Amino acid sequence: MDLDTPLARLMDALGGNLEDLEQLSPYLETLVQAVNSNIDGCDAVGVTVVMEDRPRTAAYTTAGTLEIDAVQYAVGDGPCLDAFRNRRANLVNFDRGEERWPAFMDACDPGDVQTLYALPLMSGDRCYGALNLYAYERDAFDHVEMGVVELAANRAADAIAAGVELAGARAVAGQMEQAMASRAVIEQAKGVLMARHGIDEKVAFELLRRQSQEQNLKVRVLAAQLVSEAQSSRSAAM
């Protein structure tokens, strides 16, 4: 196999097995970053996990796509939830009057997103949610190698399935809740870095992730430190 193909790079980034539940959220974060980096035309990636009948955005690369997710969860329908329920991939161009999910389309302001590609997360005979790819261009995924994207969806599904097998659905749902709560401070920390260095959201997260590795701290712990330091600096300047 050519070691410099998107498939080879994804396989390298997403190798290994889940050994405990604490590894699930970091794995999904790694997965969305790897998909974002290796799929042509892809500008953002998210993972919707449905556990105990409730959808949650378990990992994402760009906070701007959370509004699209939130609208689906609020109205109970949309391409990502449809991918989960009906176990099928959905390709959506927002400017073409999509009619399959009228409540979602009426309520959703996609912002810069023009194309969304949602794939079901299938592991064995169970579906755990959807892998969601977003693009700022029309028809962005027309020529994407579907096998590469499906591999990523399968890896995400297998990781979630392993988490359920290790700890149970309720524990996985609980970890998703904790991860969602910790992301609020991560978003604040990204804002601090963006303002401090004049960088965009993706670069800010990569800087945060790299610093967490160098300092051997979890991303959420480092993020909390950065936010606290920024708040202290503002208070001292007043």
Protein topology:
Layout: H1 6-13, H2 24-38, E1 44-51, E2 54-60, H3 66-75, H4 79-86, E3 90-93, H5 102-107, E4 115-123, E5 126-135, H6 146-167, H7 169-197, H8 201-214, H9 219-237
Antiparallel strand pairs: 1-2, 1-5, 3-4, 4-5
CATH class category of the largest domain = Alpha Beta
Structural class assignment: alpha+beta
**What is the rounded distance between the termini?**
59 Å
Mean pLDDT across all amino acids: 90
Shape: globular
Number of helices: 9
Quaternary structure type: single chain
The CATH architecture of the largest domain comes to 2-Layer Sandwich
The stretches of 5 or more residues where confidence is low (pLDDT under 50) are none
Largest sheet: 5 strands, antiparallel
**Rg estimate, integer Å:** 18 Å
Share in helix:
55-70%
Description:
This protein has 238 residues and is of the alpha+beta class. The protein has two domains: 6-167, Beta-Lactamase (2-Layer Sandwich), CATH 3.30.450; 183-237, Orthogonal Bundle (Arc Repressor Mutant, subunit A), CATH 1.10.10. It is 55% helix and 16% strand. The chain has nine helices and five strands. The protein has helices spanning 6-13, 24-38, 66-75, 79-86, 102-107, 146-167, 169-197, 201-214, 219-237, and strands at residues 44-51, 54-60, 90-93, 115-123, 126-135. It has a five-stranded antiparallel β-sheet with strand order 2-1-5-4-3. A hairpin with a 2-residue loop joins strand 4 and strand 5 (126-135). Helix 1 (6-13) runs antiparallel to helix 2 (24-38) and helix 2 (24-38) runs antiparallel to helix 6 (146-167). The longest helix is centred in the C-terminal third of the chain and has 29 residues, at 169-197. It is globular. The mean pLDDT is 90.
